[in-house]
Amino acid sequence: MVIGNLRAWADAVAALPVESRLPVRTVLVPNEAHAHALRCELIARVPGALAGTRFLTSAAAARTVLEAGGVAYQLGEELRRPLRLRAWLRGAPVLGSYRAEELRTPGWEEAFASTIEQLELASLRPEDLERLDTPRATDLATIWRALDEDAGDSWSIPRLVREACQLLSANPAVWPYRGAVLAAVPFGITAVDAALLRAIPSLTIGSLFGRPVHRGVIDRMQALLGGPVATALAAPMPPAARTDELGVLQQYLLEPPGRLAGAERRRSRGPDGTVTLEAHAGIDEELDAAARWVAEEVFHHGTPLQDIAILLPSPDPIAALVADRLAALPWPIESSPVYLASGRPAVSTACGARLLAVVQALVNGLPASAMVELLPRLRLEGDDGHLSPGRARAVVDALGTIGGSAARPQDALQWRGRCAAATLPSARAVAPAVVALVAIAAEMNAGAKLAVLWASFRAFVAAHVIAPRAMGTLIDQLDAAVRALAADRVTVDVVGVVAMQLIADELVAMRLRSGRFGEPAIYVGTILEAVSLPFRAVRILGIAEGMFPRTLRDDALLPSDLRRELPPHSISSDEDFAALQLHAFDQVVRGVRERLVISAPRTDLDGSEREPAALFIEIAAALARPDAAGQRARVIPNRNDLERDAFRPARSSVSARRTDTPLTAACWLDRVASGEGAGPGSWSRSAILDPAAIAARRVTMHGDLGTTPLTQRVPGLEPTLPMSASKLQDLLTCPHRFLLAHILRFRARSTVAENHRIDALAYGALVHRLAERFWRTHGAAFGAREHSVVHWRQVAAELADGEFDELLTRYPLVGHGVIAAERRRLHRDIATLIDHDWDGGRPRAFVDVERSFGLDDEPLSVPTEHGPLFVTGRIDRLDVDQGIALVRDFKTGKAHPRERDEVDAQVQLDLQLAVYSVVAEQLAVPWGIPTDVAAMYVYVDRFAIHRERSFRADRGVLRALGRHWLELALGLIRAGGYVQTTDPETCKRCRFAPICIDDLRDRRTRLRDATGPVAAYRELTS
Ligand code: SF4
Predict the structure, then answer these.
(1) I need a surface site. Which of 195, 753, 971, 1010 has the fewest CB within 10 A?
(2) How far apart are the CA of 992 and the centre of ligand 1, in A?
(3) Contact 116/123 with Cβ under 8 angstroms?
(4) Which atom of ligand 1 lies nearest, measured to the CA of 981?
(5) Ligand 1 cavity residues, CB under 6 Å
């Protein structure tokens, strides 16, 4: 018997022979959703047939058989098998093609467990592998047999089905159900399930029809279930009754080309809304389209929620994103509008991610990078708040340790001592939580058992982790699973980091399920799960090349040459795997009652480009739409035809519907942005969203928008917010960057400090602190060249050690070797600076070090033609040499001597010196220095050929340039000319590059006709 759809399936159930007056039937189904759908169909079509009809999965049937036969077993071997294998390998077994010590590296246990499960599903045994007589197959058989012996009565599901099958074959009387049995089998049935079916007495097998039907499909079904099932599959399907595009597709999808080319076949008369093919720029656009489509189904077509399905090639990670996007629509109901058939990965929820962060931090030895992620989720002592990510970084940096690692787990305990000595208030507030976490790490390092670690972990989460309300439910679910493991014979002795890893594995594998199929909620699941389920409207996402149909992953333990030697059709081949997915797709399409949309994203979640899958060609060939001129198109269309006759019309229609009927917030935003209409009325009822209300309220500011006035202060315009040289540099290299960084105050997320070298910023600050201490104490004597240079080097080296040791208390460097190397670097660089400044013993009058200007108590403005510009800064060194005031700035980065294309003063390099020259000239009298000022950079780099970038000879030019640059800066601010730079090199090093995506040509075009300060800026940077 062949079963084409759910209706035929229900008919087949009703037609089962009834032996007694009370009808008793058993129907084997893939899962509970199919049982529910069949019950509904039976009630609708043959109401009397439901009474006495029992629905079971094959695994449930197998369990009942074993219970009837009095066989004792326990399930869950799938999870125990990798651990069992790990323990077995510790016994150093002798294998032919693998060395036992190699197999102890991570990943092998899971690989062997997965291959053995495949072999079990193929209804094979170790003897089948031994018959191949190759070293690898024999090793696999040896491992499998050893694991089975060790497992005893602990079985995986395939093993359970196989044992039931053997029992039933030997004694059919153990089949516990009276009456006829119906099983509707898909092409993808496994060999072990097929064997069980063959052993069930009074069984009627219906073959779930699916295309393509080729020789390989028929041969496999014949091998697994016998000739009649295969013959039924090869019979042609009766024509679909409906005459629209959906009917054409259901009849011709995946049919052979000969049938598609037939002159008498039915063809589409053009898009009629029952089948839509879409290609989207990316997954986000595809999700947005799906949300809008759901809204249209519900609000426009009045489709009940449970009659809508969104299907995907695989559940993770898109299904949860789809569910979230749909849940965000304005539903008038309290309950969740989405049913996730595969559940939601626990770690994709806020609670799960939080728990996983804690467990993984422990597994990895509490490294600094993990602590930065973790601290914002921990409770603070005496404070209801939490640390921000930036504050967490600051705390980790201040605690000055890199924590532990897989190689040095004991270093995780360093956090405890550092917390005790912490002075930073945030560090003290989070210290109790960190200390409790370290206590678990200590238990783990000491080899505590799984049960002990789990108890400590649970107590820690309850006391110290900031938890959303759902945390309790998740912890309880995890508790049940981990307690079972802790009591299990295989895992009871697992200790330390392996035990903690086991908790992480449990958490990662855990899925959260809510709701049931059939409740009023949109079905979101995979194509394979939805086979034969009936829906009024179905949308299939993600049909892109490589995503659907997928190919089998190569199995290194059982490669294709070995698979080919196994009994035919037992284990899935690549062709079987592809056919299984196409059959499922065909069955889903035939289950749609009104509307079907199939879409593909052109880019993946990770940004890689994808083409729509070749399946679209099959769909277009089955539809046989007329081309743009209304003529009959070619039998098998190409990509251009597909774009012209399918994707383009769908895009125009969607775009028109988005504008005409904006059902989601994204549609409204597009509509407003394109100037095609006003926003929805509800926006103007919210003070937060309505621009007019915002403008009105900024005057009074009573709290809706916070207390900060809606104006931004611009550096340089007022004494209390002066302009620094670095801000000026941003303004004059890219005014837009100045706007983002210093007016809007956008900040790049700070990163964890480097551990293998002191990062450039921290090293520069260290050298400057050291130089300040040296010259503040010894500047006058050193300038007078008292003592010898050797003496001063020695003094500087002692100071360097003190500064370096102080830095180590708050800067984490990994290992003694790195610390010694960085100490040597500091000694070398400070000696270089001393030698350079000694200048062969020629005396120089020292004035000051780190001389500041423009601070709050003494504001400083430089007059320009646009008004005063308030400036601030610190001059590293101020000396007087031969009647000239010498301004010097120390640089620890790359040297830029005045040569080749860097010979002249330029704003990117010399702005700081120019500003300091102007300021020193202006303040010469109060500072008691000559008005003739020269400036230079000194590079603290032993290997630099030129250690100075000096403007002593052309100091007047630099001061004039400085005044011009300050003038231009204020001009840009006054004109609000925050234009983007046209220099690609500037953008390359800019932290805002990811959000600054305008084309360089467009920027140049915008600057071409500029006047005033913007034109002057263009000249400066061109
Ligand atoms: S990316 Fe380029 S244009 Fe954008 S702010 Fe940075 S420097 Fe300016």
Answers:
(1) 1010
(2) 6
(3) no
(4) 3
(5) 734, 736-737, 740, 980-981, 986-987, 990, 992-993, 996
